[in-house]
Design brief:
By secondary structure, the chain is mainly alpha-helical. The protein has a domain at 40-110. It is built from 4 helices and no strands. It has helices at 5-24, 29-39, 43-79, 84-104. α3 packs antiparallel against α4 (84-104). The radius of gyration is 23 Å and the shape is flat. It starts with a helix and ends in a 6-residue tail after the last helix. The model has no long low-confidence stretch (mean pLDDT 81).
Amino acid sequence: MRPDLPRRSLALLAALLLLLLPAGSLLTPTQASALDATWEGSKAEEGVAKTADALLIRPLSVLRFAVGIAFFVPAALFAAPGGRENVEEVYDVLVARSVDYAFRRKLGEP
């Protein structure tokens, strides 16, 4: 085991902080609001939203769908004594909403 590894990690963290902190202070609130005005509704915003949706949100939504299917069976068993409406509500919350969000909505929509 190398004893200088924690020291190197701390030095790397300090260097990153020294680089990132000044970059964050370059935008004052007035500059940020001016940037916001040009960002809203722009093609760049749409592109970033679609890319984030395709690479991050959709795969997590499919995972949510799979987990919802896995939890639906035991939840339906517990909801069944309450009647059909309860089972339909469990299905809606755990399965139907996940399907809509993961597969039916347009790319980039919230």
